[in-house]
Amino acid sequence: MKNIFGILPYVKGYWKYAIWNIIFNILSVVFSVFSIAMLFPFLQVLFSENNSKLDEIIAKGKPVFQFSTNGILDSINYMLAHSTIEHGKTHVLSLICVFIIVTILLKNLFRYLAMYSLAPIRNGVVKDLRNKIFKKTLELPLSYYSEERKGDIISRMTTDVQEIEWNIMQSLEMIFREPLNIIIFLVMMVAMSPKLTLIAFILLPVTVLLIGKLGKSLRRSSGIQKEKMGILLSIMDETLGGLRIIKGFNAEKKTAKKFEDENESFTKLGVKVGRKVDLASPLSETLGVSVLVALLYIGGKMVIDDRSMDGAVFITYLAMFSQLLTPSKAFASAYSSVQKGLASAERIDKILNAEVSIKDKENPKRIHSFEKSIEYKNVSFAYRKGEVGWVLNDINLTIEKGKTIALVGQSGSGKTTMADMLPRFYDTTHGEILIDGISLKDAAILDIRNLMGIVTQESILFNDTVFNNIAFGIDNATEADVIEAAKIANAHDFIMQMPNGYQTNIGDRGSKMSGGQRQRISIARAVLKNPPILILDEATSALDTESERLVQDALNKLMKNRTSIVIAHRLSTIQHADEIIVMQKGLIIERGTHNQLINSNGTYKKLHEMQSFV
Question: I need a surface site. Which of 103, 137, 227, 353 has the fewest CB within 10 A?
Fold first, then answer.
């Protein structure tokens, strides 16, 4: 969206309203011209000292009507001359005044209808843009968000979209309407005095150049201001999420100072941007009036000295030119607003144009069930190309259907990354992962993730009811299905003690429940999905002993007759795994059952003894 025309593809679904807007704007401008053009006959009637000029017009006979400036004026002059001779000047002046009022009413009626037809476009385009951005945020891989500030992304989805609504969509009509207004008035002015209009053409480009330079400067400053807003939102998000630590370490003043410094910088930029926006309108008006004064002097000499121009025509010409000032001023303001909005549009484009690196290939293979095994084949992975060291390095592992595989090792050894690659949150840098002999990169992502249920250390819940959190992602889940899943997850009893049972709202991220309760809701969600493959990422490590017992019991029920990949720090929870994989610095250094690894006197035994001692 490098320029304003980048917004036009979003108008595609609203052409009907756009066409009506154009028609109504043209009619509005036409009646605006008519209302000003009537000044000429009004002045002729008002200042004519005798009827000789009127007799001359009558003597020429009734002109044949032509749809042109001169044709329309000749017809109006004939009718007014005829009416003046028959009914007198006062009667004609009354008719002209009524005609001007009617044309002004029609001008404003069509102006309102133009705005009326624009409203669905303006709001609809912004709605579509908001939907597109949100959909893109869901499509982007997790690796994209590790490189971006969450607050900055939220800023682009909210304040930047709002900027487009206010600064581009509200100015879009002006950008297209005001030039039409200017062109029609210029045509009338050329017909009245080509010489004066040529002078205006020479002087007006200076105005355009100055306003253009101001607009570019505004766009740069506005872009920096948006980045500052992203930083502010990031600080707010981190502060609200870390209030317990901030208070516990008496860091309120330090945190407040950090926010105040960024807010001060944002405010200074806001003042700078605001002053530039405010400068556009008075600058264009001053330059416009300067041109008007030049025309007053030159045109006045043409009337007084060489009488090459009629006084009534000159006054009407000035009235026409004065009408150019309003659309020129509006165009200048709209141009400045658009430049400010385009800075937001460029920030939004960074999301919309971001590469979706993890996506279905053309005509992917469909997987509707899991029958045999999962295989990691020579898998290596780094988060960024060219990064020193590998998160995973030449991993080879086969997981047979129905088996439970545990991944253990120090933090940073690659356990979670290895599990995250199975639902294609990340793709392999080298090697491949296969399900029943089909490479994940060849299969449909929807099918892969339909086979899996995920329970993480941090229970990811939503500000909704218990029912909707358990039934999340499941179409047409019944109350009986949800209750059965909750019972298997040891969650039914505490849910029934809530004020509204399964229809109780659990608050932001489940803040109205304990850690153990939140985890059992997450397990119930996985139970309801009933997947053949389970990924359990340290699902009990953050719980107290009683909660851990209840959650572990729920997990044992969940894992029954399923293929499970369990990431665990507490080795006591994975002693009955069919195979334990010990990882270190992205490598598999040991593998076997609990008893085999204990007897081997390797890393696993050391880890087990350390936890036993504790």
Answer: 353
Q: Which segment of 165-169, 361-365, 548-552, 555-559 scores lowest on mean pLDDT?
A: 165-169
74 contacts 63 by C-beta, under 8 angstroms? yes
Asked whether the beta carbons of 482 and 467 are under 8 A apart, the reply is: yes
Average pLDDT, the chain: 78
How many domains, the chain?
2
CA distances from 310 to 32, 82, 303 (A): 23, 21, 6
Read off the pLDDT band of 313 (50, 70, 90): confident
User: Of 310, 331, 75, nearest to 185 (Cα)?
Assistant: 331
Residues 6+ apart with CB under 8 A from 447: 366, 367, 368
Domain CATH number, residue 218: 1.20.1560.10
Cα–chain-centroid distance for residue 202? 42
CA distance 552 to 544: 12
| DSSP collapsed to 3 states, 41-83 | HHHHHHHCCCCHHHHHHHHCCCCCCCCCHHHHHHHHHHHHHHH
Per-residue pLDDT at 68 exceeds 60: no
d(CA 371, CA 77): 92
- Run of H or E residues at 275: helix 252-304
3-state helix, strand, coil in the chain (%, to 5): 65, 10, 25
Residue type, 103: T
SS3 326: helix
Question: pTM to 2 decimals?
Answer: 0.68
Other CB atoms within a 10 A radius of the CB of residue 393 amount to 18
**Residue partners of 80: CB distance under 8 A and separation at least 6:** 41, 44, 45, 92, 95, 96
CB atoms under 10 Å from CB of 491, counted, come to 29
- Residue 224 tokens, joined: 């920096």
Question: In which domain, by residue range, is 583 found?
Answer: 373-613
500: CATH: 3.40.50.300
Do 527 and 604 share a domain, yes or no? yes
Residue 365 lies in a domain: no
Q: Which of 93-107, 339-353, 534-548, 558-572 has the lowest mean pLDDT?
A: 534-548
Bridge partner list, 337: none
